[in-house]
Amino acid sequence: MSPRCSWLYRLPGRALLGGIRTLPTTRCPGLHRSLTSSAHPPQICIVGSGPAGFYTAQHLLRHHTQAVVDIYEKLPVPFGLVRFGVAPDHPEVKNVINTFTQTAHSERCTFLGNVTVGRDVTIEELQTAYHAVVLSYGAEDKRLLGIPGENLPGVYSARDFVGWYNGLPDNRHLSPDFSAETAVILGQGNVALDIARILLSPIDLLKKTDITQTALDALSNSRIRKVWLVGRRGPLQVAFTIKELREMIILPGTRPANNPSDYQNLGDFIKDLPRPRKRLTELLVKAALEKPGEKEALRRSQSDREWGLRFLRSPVAVLPSEDGKKAAGIRLSVTRLEGNGENAVAVPTGETEDIPCGLILSSIGYKSVPISSSVPFLHKNGIIPNSMGRVQDAPGLYCSGWVKRGPTGVIATTMTDSFDTAQSLLEDIKSGALNYSENRLGASAIRELLLLRGIQPVSFSDWEKIDAVEAARGAEVGKPREKILDPEEMLQLVCR
Ligand SMILES: Cc1cc2nc3c(=O)[nH]c(=O)nc-3n(C[C@H](O)[C@H](O)[C@H](O)COP(=O)(O)OP(=O)(O)OC[C@H]3O[C@@H](n4cnc5c(N)ncnc54)[C@H](O)[C@@H]3O)c2cc1C
Ligand SMILES: NC(=O)c1ccc[n+]([C@@H]2O[C@H](COP(=O)([O-])OP(=O)(O)OC[C@H]3O[C@@H](n4cnc5c(N)ncnc54)[C@H](OP(=O)(O)O)[C@@H]3O)[C@@H](O)[C@H]2O)c1
């Protein structure tokens, strides 16, 4: 089992950073080893406990028999976007949590939640306490549209909206306005489809998921009946994938409302497309142009909710209501494409189109932010400049996941790139490029600093207590879990 060390910060007789620790270690085997081993195992810390953090840890622990890996997470709970991003009606995707839990249970792995790196502890402090620091802190911010009216009530970023229905503490008070009949989602990626599905799904389907009760109550009273997903480019450039499109097409209680003329000329292009794009386009064309069978026609005619894709439309302004107090529509610039395929660029034709709507969701991507002025950051691309995960001009610093390559790619992609980063680090250990001959105190040193700053780290066993309470609350209402929304409540639970 993993070291369960959260009680340590309450013990007397603590050694300070760089000092000699004399604490009893029987309940904390990882710490015991790091203090007594004369061989000084490599002490590595990872910032962020999403897929990138856990897959990096997994690879390091599996391929180095002595490395000690500590994972720092700003929230009291682990797993990043697997908990706060993946749609509640996709529970199978969350099974990766089982693998992450195994990693966290390794004797050589310690989870320290409720610690914001860059605020509660600096990168320099981590570099003093560890031989290597891996930055896996994801893409916490949202891309902005940069158009007038973007801040009006009724306009939400996908990041905030997804955070709201998934119980992200920061977004728990969002209270989106579902009083209008039409919603517009800007962007045509998988996040946009997730949101469309959540807005249109029959409430009885959502009730069985881990969506928050607050979201469930609000969606139960929603008047949204029509959702447009707007793309600035064409059907050959949509960013969503086939499985998610198929799910949307057969969503109970809804019917697609696509414009056949958008697809009529695609036939000539389809045969030359790469296979995944070809299959996706065939499905788009089929859904829009093929006459549905009797059963499907009946299903569609009985559905009271609609969704549709609008192409070649780029947002230019949010239109305010008469009193100017909230969004009442979106003005779109009609575009045409220059170039072909994935690289085609949308250019304005000069025409515009207005869609009246009361809810606008901007789903144009997430964005990483710099964590410290001492870490290089490419603002233009929103990534940490790196070579195979080695941060440029910063020996001992590594990065993985979305902060390494930008905010695209599924969990499997994140796994591969995290393994690559871990492999670079292991090669550096082997070649001597990463020197670990000097002892470093790792988590024990950082805990001292956190204690002095009044920060209470949450251990993995603490998280398991939170997990058990959430599961029990969920079981009472037939859900896999009822997420706790308030970090203070989480901390109170683990203090008991
Ligand atoms: C809405 C949405 C739905 C998705 N659904 C799917 C899906 O169904 N299937 C799929 O395969 N992929 C899905 N993805 C993609 C998948 O979530 C990503 O590939 C993956 O989460 C990226 O991992 P990451 O660890 O880089 O980032 P994250 O998962 O964001 O993890 C980063 C972690 O770092 C923490 N952190 C941030 N700043 C700090 C700090 N200063 N100090 C300490 N910790 C910090 C964060 O709290 C977070 O826990 C989805 C993505 C989104 C946005
Ligand atoms: N079920 C799943 O597997 C799942 C679920 C959710 C997310 N994910 C993954 O998570 C990653 C992030 O998803 P995402 O949907 O946030 O991002 P995404 O796939 O990059 O899609 C972003 C969308 O926003 C559009 N866009 C970007 N900037 C714009 C602008 N200024 N104006 C108008 N439109 C703009 C893009 O159009 P252009 O192409 O024209 O730029 C694109 O349609 C993706 O890799 C996705 O596959 C997976």
Automatic annotation (TrEMBL):
Among Gene3D superfamilies, the record links this protein to: FAD/NAD(P)-binding domain, NAD(P)-binding Rossmann-like Domain
Indicate the enzyme's highest-level EC class.
Answer: oxidoreductase
- Detail which positions bind NADP(+): 188-191, 232-233, 244, 409
Principal location class: mitochondrion
Chain segments annotated as transmembrane: none
Record has Transcription regulation as a keyword = no
The reply to whether Zinc-finger figures as a keyword in the UniProt entry is: no
Superkingdom of this protein's organism: Eukaryota
| Required cofactor names | FAD
Show where the FAD/NAD(P)-binding domain sits. 43-199
Q: Which GO terms describe its cellular component?
A: mitochondrion
Q: Where does it live in the cell?
A: Mitochondrion
List its EC numbers: 1.18.1.6
**What InterPro entries does the record point to?**
FAD/NAD-bd_sf, FAD/NAD-binding_dom, Ferredox_Rdtase, Ferredox_Rdtase_adrenod
In its UniProt entry, what is this protein called?
A: NADPH:adrenodoxin oxidoreductase, mitochondrial
